[in-house]
Amino acid sequence: MGLLSEGNPLSWTEIKLALQHIRSYALDELIRTFNKSKDRQKDAFTWGDEVELTLVRFDHDNKYVQLLLKGHQLLPIVCELNDKINDEACRIAWHPEACDFVVEGVPSQPYGFLPSHFNIVEANMKLRREQIQQILCQQSDCEYILNIAAFPRYGQRQCTYPPLEYGPSHSVEKSLCYPDALISPIHPRTKSLSKNTNERRQSKASINIPIFKDCKTLSPFRDELFKDDPDIKDDNIHLDSTTAGWGCCCLQVTFQCESFEESIYLYDQLLPLCPIMLCLSGACPIWRGYLSDIDCRWNVLSEAADDRTIEERKERNFLSRFSSTPSYLADKNKHLNDFNYPVNQSVVSKLIDQGMPETLSRHFGHLFIRDPLVVLKEFLHPIDDTTSYHFENLNSLVWNSLRLKPPPLDDNLMGWRIEFRPMDIQISDFENAALVVFLALLTRVIITYGLDLTIPISQVNKNMNIAHYRDSARKEKFYFRHGNQISEMFMNEIINGTQDFLGLVPLTRKYILQREDIDADTRHTIEQYLSLISKRAAGTLLTNASWIRQFVLSHPSYKQDSIVSQEIQYDLVWKMQQIANGHEDCPQIKYPNMDTHTELHPK
Ligand code: ADP
Ligand code: MG
Ligand code: MG
Ligand code: MG
Ligand code: MG
Ligand code: MG
Fold first, then answer.
1. What ipTM does the predicted assembly reach?
2. Atom of ligand 1 nearest to the CA of 419
3. Would you list the DSSP string of 563-590?
4. How far is ligand 2, taken at its centre, from the CA of residue 571, in Å?
5. Which residues are placed with Cβ below 5 angstroms of ligand 5, an ion?
6. What is the pLDDT of residues 147-206, one digit of tens each?
7. Which of 216, 457, 218, 202 is nearest to 306 (CA)?
8. For the domain bounded by 429-580, which CATH number is listed?
9. 98 in ligand 1 pocket by Cβ < 6 Å?
10. How far does residue 248's CA lie from ligand 5's centre (Å)?
11. Residue in 589, 577, 581, 582 with CA at minimum distance from that of residue 548
12. Which residue has the higher pLDDT, 586 or 231?
């Protein structure tokens, strides 16, 4: 999450005093960036994924599984190991995450445009978990690194190893459930981020998630822990900390574009795909030990990261800084921006004066309504005009479903990039690879066939909410453009086609058929991925969220009261471990013969 650099964070009071300076530095940097890079041409199509991985510890005697607070110990070891690997394809860049039980791994070099690159994504993801797993195995035989989008009982007492003390005195946010000791000690930004988010909004985070009402669920359902809290609503699971959100794990993909123009076009086309991919990736039905009525983490993070003041929250169109992308960027799509988001008007005018197109100027004008929640003292006053710290910092502290990343001032090799951010992480490397490869291929399909998938922003926003509904991949309809019309369509129709729309997977297959340079092995891999996506949309395979739900509902000790006990969690997470490590099949989410078998070995 966000830009990582070593340094000492300023307090919120110090940031407030420096806000005018910071904004003007950031604006200068943005203008210089734009002028320097707007005419870049012919950058390569490079791309890369980011996976956030969860550390857990099983106690088989007591049927417990806990979050393992060990990221800060593992990262220095695994980074040193990678420093010694010469073969780029086998080197991983590891990053600390907000919570100490999460680490983030990305390929050290982005993938290229050669078809064979599509064949190594899964192997690279597998390698990431292997690197950490090997270190864990040297220390213990019950510790694992897994893909878990939201740990089921995260926020319940005893959810961590080692155990922590709970209560308002153990949290800068005064959270009852999420003590500061969950935060990674080697990620100096996070504690400052939580504290400043709290100070700015002048209260602790308040996250309400509708509970899944089973036949024996208390009615109304009210969490004992918060029974005197006016903030919580009946029939909701309540989380009371930014750290609740930052403990979730996502799957992100970044695409570099050939030029500025291409990045604007692709951004606008990827925008309506955010809710589609969110829906297909849904993997988060359980929150703080309760079965919920939602399938994805997105809206939870939106509330967790919300730093708006009370006044800002009253303004209808002033959204959380963690929200669905509020606007298209191309002037020609201006009419689709039917959501009237606030902007810093003086920033917009200055950017237009500099020759930036109007709609893009408004996009950045919107960025500038946000305060930078974390600022490192060492970077407060730029020493010269070759860096873009303040702009990049501001840009990385707004968490929309897409992020436009202009080329940094101090890096001449990097082009215009788009980060695709909505997806939940999947249980297996195979599924994660399938989602990111499908998306990477879709970018080629969009550009090759000149697709137009745009629909009004208000409809994208509705789709984002619909994606959260229970079993939305099978049951809900989404607004979708095909040709000249927008219709409400089932995921099956969007992905697999209708009488008058070919469907996103068949379109991708058509593209692959036309690419004569793709070897048979890569074709086979890609077909496995497309087949997963196709079956998930058709409902013949389950999303992770639906499978997790079914697992809980059919567990022998489940009491039909929405409560996911320690024992259920233990069995569930152990099963996820078995699936992820290929020890057990799970034909409900992927057929046994689906995984591909490319391996990466350092030369
Ligand atoms: P952040 O957390 O700010 O998104 P990370 O460094 O964690 O940044 O991830 C950056 C992602 O962008 C990685 O997936 C990486 O592979 C990818 N990436 C880096 N450089 C390029 C590039 N030139 N073109 C495309 N993707 C890139
Ligand atoms: Mg991350
Ligand atoms: Mg990252
Ligand atoms: Mg980052
Ligand atoms: Mg995260
Ligand atoms: Mg990222």
1. 0.95
2. 4
3. B--HHHHHHHHHHHHHHHTTSS-BTTTB
4. 27
5. 1
6. 999 999 999 999 999 999 999 999 999 999 999 999 999 987 888 999 999 999 999 999
7. 202
8. 1.10.150.710
9. no
10. 5
11. 589
12. 586
Pairing type for strands 207-210 and 236-239 reads antiparallel
User: Mind giving me the DSSP string for 288-352?
Assistant: TTEEBSB--SHHHHHHHT----HHHHHSTT---SSSS-----SGGGGGG--S-----HHHHHHHH
Ligand 4 centre to CA of 3 (Å) is 5
Q: What is the rounded distance in angstroms from the CA atom of residue 21 to the CA atom of residue 379?
A: 12
| Residues contacting residue 104 through CB under 8 Å, at least 6 positions apart | 50, 51, 52, 53, 94, 95, 96, 97
- Long-range (24+ apart) CB contacts under 8 A made by 570-574 are 570/58, 570/63, 570/64, 570/65, 571/63, 572/152, 572/548, 573/56, 573/58, 573/65, 573/146, 573/148, 573/151, 573/152, 574/58, 574/65
How many angstroms is it from 184 CA to the middle of ligand 1? 22
Quick count: other Cβ atoms within 10 Å of Cβ 524?
11
Residue among 1, 50, 413 whose CB has most ligand 1 atoms within 8 A, to mutate = 50
CA of 438 relative to ligand 4 center, distance in Å: 23
Q: Write out the residues surrounding ion ligand 6, Cβ under 5 A.
A: 50, 252
Q: Is 110 in the pocket of ligand 1 (CB under 6 A)?
A: yes
416 Cβ inside 6 Å of ligand 1: no
Strand-pairing partners, residue 405, are 417
Whether the CB-CB separation of 322 and 399 falls below 8 Å is answered with: yes
Using only C-alpha atoms, what is the Rg of the chain?
23
Q: What integer pLDDT is reported at residue 600 of this predicted model? A: 84
Where are the chain's structural domains?
Answer: 429-580
Q: Whole-structure pTM over 0.90, yes or no?
A: yes
For the segment 268-284, what is each residue's pLDDT rounded down to a tens digit?
A: 999 999 999 999 999 99
The verdict on the CB of residue 419 being under 6 Å from ligand 1 is: yes
CA-CA distance, 477 to 491, in Å (whole number)?
A: 7
501 lines ligand 1 (CB under 6 A): no
Residue 220: cis peptide before it, omega within 30 degrees of 0: yes
